[in-house]
Amino acid sequence: MERKYIWEKFSADDKTAMEQTAAKYMECISSCKTERECIRRAASMAEAAGFKNINTVIAEGGKLSAGDKVYAVYNEKTMALYNIGTDPIEDGMNILGAHVDSPRIDVKQNPLYENTGFAYLDAHYYGGIKKYQWVTIPLAIHGVVVRKDGTKVNVCIGENPDEPVFTITDILPHLGAPQMEKPAPKIIEGENLDLLIGSEPLATDSEDQKDRISANILKVLSDKYGIEEEDFISAELEIIPAGKARELGLDRSMILGYGQDDRICAFTSLFAMLETESVKRTACCLLVDKEEIGSVGASGMQSRFFENKTAEVLALMGHNDAISVRRTLANSTMLSSDVSAGFDPLYADVFEGKNAAYLGKGVVFNKYTGKAGKVGSNDANPEFIAAIRNILDRNNVSFHTAELGKIDIGGGGTIAFIMANLGMEVIDCGLPILCMHAPMEVSSKADVYEAVKAYKVFLAEMTGINR
Questions:
Q1: Distance separating alpha carbons of residues 66 and 89, to the nearest angstrom
Q2: Are 431 and 456 in contact (CB under 8 A)?
């Protein structure tokens, strides 16, 4: 069944609202390029929308009841928001879950070195990237440095017009014949993804001082940020494309920007959560870290953060027994809000056209992901899919379905299977993008607008599934 493009149903008012939503989204992904920046912004937006930090509620000896809104944060990397509904919470929640980490390049713990007139930062890539895409483009450094005394220095260099940028160099084509004979994964080796950061030696009266260029870099870091070389050990610095998200196309219908996997779903989910008022079933929005490397670690979806915070919410509602947490999670329904590979006609041979995601056709449901024979996927139940179809069609929300490429070519995974392990109904529901995992990715403004509508309908109208 072929679905129409959203543009065909848009009124003038829809287009005005779409532009407003797209502008807000573009501002968010332009200023929030790391997971910490995303969570800080999300917490600020939540506070402005009337959400309270759950730690404050606990410290004040408060309780939670229908209509209350709270949020919890772990180490500026993972966040859960709850809008308490009028139905018993043990009947389940409606959950939107997205990740805020994106493929990038990370600075190593012992990074600074000098070689033949240049200073570099040694680096290691994070997530699945095509390494050759990250060379010769303007790059910025974002992150945090924690000194031995525990004080933090937030770092953001390369975004403002008056700030320097950085780059990773490549060989010129005149000397690149041996390089071009290599397979694509070997064109740029991981150990050559080092960031060029300086070339001026430190002015000194001592002619014997070595590594004067590195010494000058350390002086700049000390003067501007109060950072010493040893502080790199306890730093978390990310190398990412410099510059803001931009409108794409003469018709300005698309968005070009870094980190849209998966911040396009994270921010549309957040917008929907903050715009949703009173609900019957408790609404929840999850923004998590580490999805691009397997959802591991204390801030990944495989941690106990979400279960623990849900237990805290239940305790504040008078449910102190362990079975209440299990019932609540098992009876919940969730949209794993993650992107899908948008159909690119220039690479049509890797897609199966009838089951592909298309920019401009709204949210896309992936009943399953995984690889080859659905290995490693969450395979959503048809009863759940039917219920979602019902509420979206009833509210005139556009959607379509897809797989991630041809069977023996494509494949991938999200946080869906992790949540399904808790017994809840889960399906992947995100937006299609082009150039996934590239330094700059492409999305549709129309899809951003339609996603907020879809997520709001899910939070407000989804009911439990009889099993």
A1: 10
A2: no
**What SS3 class is residue 341?**
strand
Instruction: Name residue 409's amino acid.
Output: I
Nearest to 295 by CA among 191, 419, 198, 205: 419
Residues of the chain with pLDDT under 50: none
Contact 467, 459 (CB under 8 A): no
Quote the DSSP letter at residue 137. S
pLDDT digits (tens, 9 = 90+) for 88-141: 999 999 999 999 999 999 999 999 999 999 999 999 999 999 999 999 999 999
Contact criterion met (CB below 8 Å) for 231 and 147? yes
Compute the 3-state secondary structure of the chain and give helix, strand, coil in percent, each to the nearest 5.
Answer: 35, 25, 40
Beta bridge partners of 118: 115
What is the set of domains in the chain, with CATH numbers? 6-102+258-461 (3.40.630.10), 104-241 (2.30.250.10)
**Residue 372 confidence (pLDDT):** 78
What is the layout of strands, in order, in the sheet containing 399-401? Answer: 52-53, 69-74, 78-83, 282-288, 93-99, 333-336, 425-430, 363-366, 399-401
Please give the angle made by the CA atoms of 121, 122 and 123, to the nearest 5 degrees.
Answer: 110
Contact 65, 84 (CB under 8 A): yes
**Six token digits for residue 368:** 């399953």
C-alpha span between 204 and 219 (Å, rounded): 12
Q: Are 35 and 289 in contact (CB under 8 A)?
A: yes
Residue 94: what pLDDT?
A: 98
The span from the CA of 87 to the CA of 67, in Å, is 11
What does the DSSP assignment read for 213-233?
Answer: HHHHHHHHHHHHH---GGGGG
- Tell the residue number behind the tokens 């129309």, with chain if given: 446
What confidence score (pLDDT) does residue 60 get? 94
pLDDT, residue 1, reads 66
pLDDT at residue 411 in the model: 74
pLDDT of residue 44: 97
Comparing C-alpha atoms, which of 147, 142, 158, 107 is closest to residue 227? 147
What are 49-52's contacts with CB under 8 Å, separation 24+?
A: 49/274, 51/81, 51/274
> Is the CB of residue 267 less than 8 Å from the CB of residue 99?
no
Angle between helices 382-394 and 445-461 (to 10 degrees): 110
DSSP string for 282-330: EEEEEEEB-GGGTS-STTBTTSSHHHHHHHHHHHHTT--SHHHHHHHHH
Query: What are the distances in angstroms from CA 141 to CA 50, 162, 168, 282, 465?
Result: 33, 15, 13, 39, 46
